[in-house]
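User: Here's a chain of 334 residues. Predict its fold as tokens.
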Amino acid sequence: MALSIAPGLTETPPGAAPDQKGGGRRPKSERKAPVRPGGKRQLAPLWLLSPAGIVLLAVTVAPIVFLVFTSFTDYDQRSLFTGAYDSVGVQQYATLLADTGFWWSLVRTLVFTAAMVGGSVLIGTGVSHLLTRLGTPMRYTVTVVLILAWAMPNVASSIVWKWLFQPGYGVVNWLLTQTGLIGDMTNVDWSNDAALAYTSIWLLIVWQAVPFIALTMYAAETQIPLEYKEAARLDGASEWRVYRTVTLVFLKPTLLLITILSIIWDFNVFNQIWLVSAGGPDDATSTLGVFTYVTAFVGFDIGQGAAISVVTTLLLVVLTAFYVRNLVRSGEDL
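Assistant: Prediction complete.
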């Protein structure tokens, strides 16, 4: 049977390379992008993104630019009313680096952040694993309780927390007194003792952070293939070894991401510390957030406060760079 060939096409012998001008792929030089009439459709994505871009410029980029600019001026209370200020160059940063109060607040921030991140991540990871062992009704109950605790505004929860630890009528003091383990705690003021103030604030922040970490880690743990765990159990591995060698390996990217977010959040903690202890006693709980607030809005040295904020942001970038680098190297998607 004779085969007819369409006009303009030539038959390609078996094994031969396809003719570039025939049935094969055209070279890149001959490929043309689809023509969009009028060119208006090319601007459509920009028009759709412009509302979000304007909002980001207004609430994020512009304040950051103004903050950096203010850190190079002597902006203070007088400037708020008259608008007058002078450029001082890097004088604000030189004064800041020579201030021992800044360095002590930085040390307190680093130590307290490490304690809060370690406690919240450890307890949150433990709660997430316990959720996988609970029955459906109990798991739903615990999940709802975690969501309710997480949804409570931190200002309201901080005020209630301070009431719980109040001397005279605080519930926590009463309960500790009833146990008789550490004597009479009825009239103990937690906010006037550095160690007790840190303990109270640590408990508050960990209590607020655990729900998010637990639910996020639980969602990640439920995605681990059961075949790996069963294979480890068949090889005689204990439950702890299965969790350490299988579960934690799969949870590593999520755990690193949770740690990054916890560092950023806990490093910038202000509301809880200010409402519970106001940085006292004798600046013992004055972290960088409290130090910045007191400098900028109590002493009205706004230029100095802006310099502290810029330095704090740079410190956060340095602290999180290591974790981000590990995430990128592992090849995992955030």
